[in-house]
Amino acid sequence: MFIMTVNYDDFIELQSRYPRKISNDFMVPAEIKKRIEHDSLSLIADERALFIFERREGFSKLHFRITDTGAGLPPHDGTLAAYLTYRDGRYPKAAADWLQGQNFRYVKTLLRHTAKGITGELSEEDVENAGADDVYSMIGEHFSAVEADLPPRELFETAKTYCKRSPEGKLLGLVYDMGQTRVVAVSKQARGKGLGRRLYMSYATEKIRENNDNVFHEWISPDNTASLSMFRALGFISDTTASDCYILTKEDK
Asked: Which residues lie below 8 Å from residue 236, measured CB to CB, with a gap of 6+?
């Protein structure tokens, strides 16, 4: 078994050595390059498996490609989170069985919702960019680190965040965009007033300027009724794609 720190080209070449028999690796090239540039990936591989540990705030996101179901998880001290996506509607049983054999426990299912043609306007005076400390403070009120799928803090410093503050400067709501990861959060005292929708429309408007296909995808937990209500009002409909989250902590080992 060997551990590697690699550049982008070496990383892509290494991935190609492992067929996708059992896998949860669906990182897109742009995200891989960003993580490598910020030194937030570590790789462990042998003849049976490739493991990718993506260091995030409070946990590591695990990606893997396994050629032999007898492969075991390398030693790791922190909390690991693995997301298994249903490809073409098919449940990823082999990968789920492998994770459960390594003592991972199922946490939740996220369902993808899709919308096309979202448009909206929000003046620049209404929206500002929040710093990483403010964002983490607010998200901590709503989500655990794994639930929010937070990126590494150093990447968060450069993330685009759309937020609204009270006259006293308190953060009332935000939308942040990290490519594959987006979170909408609104403080308890500001809920039910359309703030989340307005912030998201501001985000969508800017994305429309960047991308003419005008299609949006969001992953939402089935029991997150507030988010489901907002996204349905924005025109999102559920599709058949689901992603299951599994977690391994020190207590689970």
From this structure: 113, 114, 115, 216, 218
